[in-house]
Amino acid sequence: GQQVRARNINPVGHTRLPRYARGKNGSIVRCHGVFVFPDTNAQFLGEQPQHLYSVRFAAQELWGEEASPRDSVYIDMWDSYLDHA
Predict the structure, then answer these.
(1) Given its phi and psi angles, is residue 44 left (phi above 0), alpha (psi -120 to 50 degrees) or beta?
(2) Cβ–Cβ contacts within 10 Å for residue 40, how many?
(3) What angle do CA 7, 12, 58 make, to 5 degrees?
């Protein structure tokens, strides 16, 4: 239930943080555990294990008032993608 904000990052290399979620607020609904961080591993910068969370974003947070207030999107996100809201 912790409130978080997806970081608004624009790295040169690979990331699994969707652009449509950057800078948006959500809430953590599940901790999956600790896994290899793919952004650094893909660039041969090490595994750098991190917690992986399932974060719920309201559709209106992502796409504005025209989106259904009943809809939401769940995105798996690593620690490096999140700030406290």
Answers:
(1) left
(2) 16
(3) 30
